[in-house]
Amino acid sequence: MARVLGTRLLRLVATLFAVTFLSFLMTALLPGDPAVAVLGVEGVQNEELLLEVREELGLNDPIPVRYVNWLGRAVTGDLGESYINRGVPVAQTIQERIPVTAQLAVMAIIIALVLAIPLGVLGAYKESRWPDTASSAFAQIALSVPNFITGIFLIWLFSVTLRWLPASNWNRLGNGVVDNLKTSIMPATALAMTQMAIFSRLVRSDMIATLQENFVLAAKAKGLTDRFILLRHALRPSSLSLMTILGINFGALLGGTVVIETLFAIPGLGFRLINAISQRDIMVIQGITVFIAVVYVVINTVVDLLYAAVDPRIRRS
Amino acid sequence: MSDAFPQLETIPIPVATATEEVSASRFGWFRDMPILVKLSTGWLFLVVFGAIYAKLDESVFGGALPLQDPNLQTNNFNAETGEFGTGEPLEGPSASHWLGTDAIARDTFARLVHGAWVSLIVASVSATFGVVVGGLVGSLVGFVRGRFETVAMAVIDVILAFPALVLLLALVSIFEVRSLGLISFVIGVLSIPAYTRVARANSLAISNREFVLAAQAIGTRRRQILFREIIPNVLPTLLAYAMVAAAFVVVVEGTLSFLGLSVQLPQSTWGNMINQARRDLKVDISQVVWPSLALTLTVLALNQVGDYFQRRGAVRQSSL
Question: Would B63 be classed as within a structural domain?
């Protein structure tokens, strides 16, 4: 276990360096002069001031030096300031918006699991009969509908037609759970559907394999009910690959929040990223990109390690 | 678990395992297709034909089919006749506008067919990049191994360490003018790592087969083994994977368009049609339905056909 831990952590560090370097390059290689962006149109006339700002931003140093300096600041939580909203640190923006995006992602995973596990278990239990065919077809379709389309149809159904839920905006959790749920349930469901499809297919195929094991036969011979065998005996060994895919799909989910937050006008990281892109606010784009990438890399490593901790076969190999 | 980071997050790496019987007759492959796969193939041909027809309508086909101008606002003032057009915004389906008109009275059917062109180009460019570059590099490193493999796979791990859509957004945001060529190129380059993974996994498996050992034993040159033995056997799996990957790419392009970050207007894409139509959701949902349906059916069809060929490819490999 210690060796697995060692190599994974080493890989984590290497990947983090590479990921941050790539994000850094984004601004370093960008056409145009960041100093001009900082000074604005009036400042550009002043040649001396321009040189001064360039020196201050370290634009005269070679790229590796600039990278180390930038990384040093980034690690201490200084990701620079927005070019557009002067004086607002990028780190502060991220800090304000992370609870929203995190809540959406977690809710989406919960909704996906709650729907996927019964569907997958049902499919495995009734393998090749109509409940299996129906749940597989449903998963296949859910997998093929892009999340923003699901979102629009949810809005049409629940906001436009039934008028039950608001079509956009966001109530923070602090303002009451019910108010928050009214604004978060639709976007979270839209995010969850694709994941649900992936999870249920996985649970189904793993469950089919587990149901052929001898211990299931033994449990049947003991006279345990099917329901008890399915939920108490077979589900846990069938959920190992579900665990890995959970971590892996977190990245897809973070990508998905970008679209869904934009569609529902939710003040999360993704919506801010899209705004920054349309304003060409490079520091914000860079900050959010590097933040999401680092979170993603770290989560993947943690999931890998958890997986190794749970399954002894991986520990040994 | 050596592959820690996923590619195209949702798609597992296909490696050969036998699952079903294959008919021996020459054209049996078509007869044996499940009905859904046949329908899917039909839909995909329709989309490809529509896209190509839309692009070459004037120059090659000379307007043989009555496809309208996707950018003509049919209620516009016409200077030649001195009259306003007869179209209305947000019309329902009719003989003159099969799927009705959009918010500024443009023919939805024409925009839909022209939108297929963007999806087709992005998907084909990314598949070509993936199969050619990813296939070559993956087959090579899976066969040769060694330090080159370590370096190549490390680079790929880093690219795949970003959530795909976020990396794409960051890259696209650098460019102010976003042409179809640029979007296809960026998505194409980002597709390469996933294909490399698949090609390498299959190349690794094939490199250990008896016929490769035999070729090595009689002293065949490595280059010849790579091109005669490895690549021909990696290719079927890779092409089947390309279908599934194309489904993912079509969704990604749709998402970019929906966010207004893909090809510029007035070029219609399914994603930007959905984005424009959703503003009139309260009045008319049908304008959202058509492009959504086209996008979803195409993704569904690509998945069906890709899955099918992956299963078949697996059988063929196992019987080698």
Answer: no
